[in-house]
């Protein structure tokens, strides 16, 4: 594969933004797959945008979605009408575009069974609908249908329309592109929160409510971990303190961040945004811009250290809670990536949840490079 090409632009009209993107690329250069991300300001025009792109580029295969924020090499676009796109040439028949229509994946298997059986894909870029309450289960199911395939991607973020692009326009479930072993990638995840206090065990729970941790009232343990200042004014914890659920079997200390959704002072209960079981480990965490920056740089250096060739291009999926909210204005998060990796062609968006391997994360950044 030759180096990929990217284009990005912000403009009042989508036609102007699209033409500006295309003007940044050589359309005579071979390409057979496009990645397309547009801010939700252009969401209503996604049908026209995709149709015109196919006509102008003569590329039939496209994947992507809408986002409140989108990004590319060294640049972030938030709350403005913008488009980013990347064109790549992949080995013939090495990828397969898909969209799911039901939870049990019967349609997915029947539609793609020939390609799946002959290619045994190990990697996919996926986009999901955050309104689907079973989306986390669908992510696991898709990975299993691929033979424990590794997924990267994110959940669409939008104020109104939750469109995904998978050759056509879809929504409601999962969509994306699967790759066979001829497409080599490297991928890493970076956390946006830092754990605090000790690791605890849930010794009593009800659905998503923590009743007891280490055989003590959950709120007592929570207050000790967050410190006296926050414990005296629990109104401050929203958006600052989270629950961290360690990923079982992870050798990198990964954890799933989930929001706090309620505190019952009288009964000393803590509710989180995830169903939990007795015996599950849990840690509390806080959003920390310094730690997030350090972890991002550490991840980038690790992925760079393992490179034996210059990446052709990449995709990056970051949480809406990151970007300007965590790293500062002026595209700081993407500029950090650029400062370590150089001008690798890169596109992506700021998601309602990030996908890595078989799991749905929050407050993370997921970077994948095509080699």
UniProtKB/TrEMBL annotation:
SMART domains: FIST, FIST_C
Membrane topology classification: Multi-pass membrane protein
A GO term from the CC aspect: plasma membrane
Presence of the UniProt keyword Transmembrane in the record: yes
Record's subcellular location: Cell membrane
Gene Ontology MF terms: kinase activity
Domain FIST C-domain residue range list: 218-358
Database matches in Pfam families: FIST, FIST_C
Keywords: Cell membrane, Kinase, Membrane, Transferase, Transmembrane, Transmembrane helix
PANTHER family xref list: F-BOX ONLY PROTEIN 22 (PTHR14939)
Protein name: Histidine kinase
Organism: Beggiatoa leptomitoformis
Lineage: Bacteria, Pseudomonadati, Pseudomonadota, Gammaproteobacteria, Thiotrichales
């Amino acid at each position: 594969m030759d180096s990929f090409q990217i284009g990005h632009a912000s403009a009042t009209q989508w036609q102007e933004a699209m033409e500006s993107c295309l003007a940044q690329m050589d359309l005579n250069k071979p390409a057979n797959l496009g990645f397309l991300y547009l801010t939700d300001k252009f969401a209503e025009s996604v049908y026209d945008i995709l149709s015109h792109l196919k006509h102008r580029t003569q590329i039939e295969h496209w994947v992507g979605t809408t986002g409140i924020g989108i990004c590319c090499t060294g640049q972030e676009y938030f709350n403005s009408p913008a488009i980013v796109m990347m064109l790549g040439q992949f080995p013939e028949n090495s990828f397969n575009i898909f969209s799911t229509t039901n939870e049990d994946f019967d349609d997915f298997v029947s539609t793609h069974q020939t390609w799946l059986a002959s290619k045994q894909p190990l990697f996919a870029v996926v986009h999901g609908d955050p309104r689907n309450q079973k989306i986390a289960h669908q992510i696991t199911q898709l990975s299993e249908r691929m033979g424990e395939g590794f997924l990267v991607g994110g959940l669409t973020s939008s104020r109104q329309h939750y469109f995904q692009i998978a050759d056509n326009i879809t929504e409601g479930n999962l969509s994306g592109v699967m790759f066979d072993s001829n497409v080599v990638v490297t991928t890493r995840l970076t956390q946006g929160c830092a754990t605090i206090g000790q690791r605890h065990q849930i010794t009593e729970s009800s659905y998503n409510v923590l009743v007891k941790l280490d055989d003590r009232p959950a709120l007592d343990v929570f207050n000790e971990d967050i410190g006296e200042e926050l414990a005296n004014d629990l109104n401050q914890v929203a958006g600052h303190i989270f629950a961290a659920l360690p990923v079982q079997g992870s050798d990198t200390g990964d954890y799933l961040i989930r929001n706090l959704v309620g505190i019952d002072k009288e009964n000393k209960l803590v509710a989180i945004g995830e169903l939990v079981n007795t015996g599950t480990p849990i840690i509390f965490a806080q959003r920390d811009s310094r730690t997030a920056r350090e972890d991002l740089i550490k991840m980038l250096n690790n992925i760079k250290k393992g490179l034996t060739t210059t990446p052709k291009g990449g995709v990056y999926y970051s949480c809406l809670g990151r970007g300007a909210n965590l790293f500062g204005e002026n595209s700081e998060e993407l500029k950090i990536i650029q400062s370590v990796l150089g001008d690798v062609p890169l596109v992506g968006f700021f998601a309602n949840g990030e996908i890595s391997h078989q799991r749905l994360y929050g407050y993370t950044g997921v970077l994948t490079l095509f080699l």
